[in-house]
Amino acid sequence: MKNNLLLLVLMMGSAVYARQMTVADPWIDSYIKNEMKEIGIPGMAVAVIRNGKVLHCNTYGIANIEHDIPVSESTAFQIASVSKLFTSTLLMKWIQQKKISLEDKVSAYIPNTPGTWSKITIGHLVAHESGVPWPASLGGSIGIAATEPFKVDSMPVLIEKLKAAPMNFEPGTKQSYVNGDYFLLQYVIEKIGGQPFEQVLKKEVFDQIGMSNSGYDVEQRDLRVLTMVPLKHKSQNFTTGRNGPLIFKSFYAPTSYDAGGMFLSIRDALKWTIALDKQTLINASMQEEMKKETEIKGGFTQLGWTTQLNNGYQVIGHSGGPGLGDILRVPSEKLTVIELSNFADMYPYISGNILQHYLPKFKPQEMPKTLKRNLVR
Description:
This protein has ten helices and 13 strands. The protein has helices at 2-20, 26-39, 83-96, 122-126, 155-164, 180-193, 197-209, 266-278, 284-290, 350-358; strands at 43-50, 53-64, 69-70, 76-78, 220-221, 226-227, 237-239, 246-248, 263-265, 306-310, 313-320, 325-330, 335-341. The strands form four sheets. The protein has a seven-stranded antiparallel sheet with strand order 3-2-1-13-12-11-10, with helices on both faces. A hairpin with a 4-residue loop joins strand 12 and strand 13. The protein is globular.
């Protein structure tokens, strides 16, 4: 009965959201179109939400060059490390349900852990404080250079390799943004959920708030072949070519989906944000915990969101790709900016400028607009 009531509330909220989909801020439209033209972004989707109300939502450009498909509200963009915010949402839900605690020791879930892991808690994993390394040979390519290209270890093999690897630092003494933490965290999530991570996230989060255009393509590859699960409305990604965009496909190992690899549509991003604003999935007290820093104060909250204090505003969120996805949220204002892109050569600078449009005192982080991947041909 309780689940039926929750679904009814979310359906009513979705109906309101659907009526708001056409809301567009002329300043944002002009700004986005100018930036796309200047640096060559093929396609984007942008939304701004304040206290459950959509202030802006629009799509721009093309999602698939080969089939000439424009970006729509259903287009699913690769969001890379922004995936961690949805992992955080899952964990917050389970903490509310007392299925897991940030204080739980990792050794309670993973058998035969080494002595160096005795102090590692779930909270250390989420906030990047465990000290577990991220060798290039683990989980396939990390975007720089893997020692074993086109080969991905299974979860049991991966865990054993991590057990044997030396620690980078004593757990809880610093924050260091490496995905070794999230390899272990995914193992724990799959053990509790009894399914692969992408299925657990769909059941526990996506299905609960009507997110129907997001997910994972569950890619598997070796030197000879590449297979993946069809994902409707999936955008291509692009990098710079000599005569136009080149199609760019990053690889995310299924053993690290809690850290990256999720595809998200702007339609579903709105549903998720509105669910946070309306507290239909994550309650108010848990959202207070979501924004709290750990004692380390190294740039991440205790639930894995990036955090900064900017001219009186705490701004939390995450970027990924580095600019394929970016979400900035100001809890005190219940204001959220979402930027989704299919251009792999950009930094996440756009969301900050949009946030300043609504909060003039906010100072966007200075960064270059683009990066060179040296893949031009």
